[in-house]
Amino acid sequence: MEGGCRCGSVRWRIEGERIPRTYACHCLDCQTWSGSAFSQQAIVARERFECIGKVGQFDLPSSDGNRISNQFACPACFTRLYNTNTSRPGLVAIRAGTFDDSHQLTVVAHIWTKRKQPWLTIDERYPSWPEGAPQAELFRLIDAPVAGLSRK
Ligand SMILES: [Zn+2]
Ligand SMILES: [Zn+2]
Predict the structure, then answer these.
(1) How far apart are CA 142 and CA 137, in angstroms?
(2) 116: CA distance to ligand 1 center in Å?
(3) Which ligand lies nearest to the CA atom of residue 29 in the structure?
(4) Predicted structure pTM score
(5) Which protein residues have their CB within 5 A of the ion that is ligand 1?
(6) In Å, how far are 1, 12, 42 from 115, measured between CA atoms?
(7) Using the 8-state DSSP alphabet, how is residue 34 labeled?
(8) Which ligand is nearest to the CA of 8?
(9) Which ligand approaches the C-alpha of residue 111 most closely?
(10) What whole-number distance in Å separates Cα of residue 123 and Cα of residue 21?
(11) Model confidence band, residue 32 (pLDDT cutoffs 50, 70, 90)
């Protein structure tokens, strides 16, 4: 699977992964950061993820200072591409809209629905949480490549 930014100067590739399941976050930070109604992310193993081209990096510490979110974007067109977080080493969260074949992705969980836009109706077949979900449960739903969780 491959993807990249809007202008084409940054491309990424995932080796040997099936199509990931994604989740949507409706929190206000994600709305602001995406410039849209919610963020949609796929989580893959860092060792299978390769980025080609120069990326810009922005590091944001959590309010308690225990975690740092490292955000990566194209320095030319400012497309947000992916992020890592010091609280989940070995994983990369890719912005779903940067997949070349983003139409193949499904959203299997929704978090922070208490901040979702009122016009948006969430498919009740999939779990949702008014605020954040327990990470282990969310990662199980999206089948994240975490050690100790079984992979299908
Ligand atoms: Zn670009
Ligand atoms: Zn969010």
Answers:
(1) 9
(2) 28
(3) 2
(4) 0.91
(5) 5, 7, 9, 74, 76-77
(6) 31, 31, 21
(7) H
(8) 1
(9) 2
(10) 15
(11) very high
pLDDT in tens, 41-66: 999 999 999 999 999 999 999 889 88
Inform me whether the pLDDT recorded for 117 exceeds 90.
Answer: yes
CB 107 within 8 A of CB 93: no
Q: Locate the domains of the chain by residue range.
A: 21-141
Tell me the CATH class for 21-141: alpha beta
For residue 145, the model assigns a pLDDT of 86
Instruction: Examine the pLDDT at 27 and tell me if it is beyond 50.
Output: yes
Rounded CA separation 142/23 (Å)? 7
pLDDT of residue 149: 53
Ligand 1 centre to CA of 72 (Å) is 11
Looking at all shown ligands, the one closest to residue 74's CA atom is 1
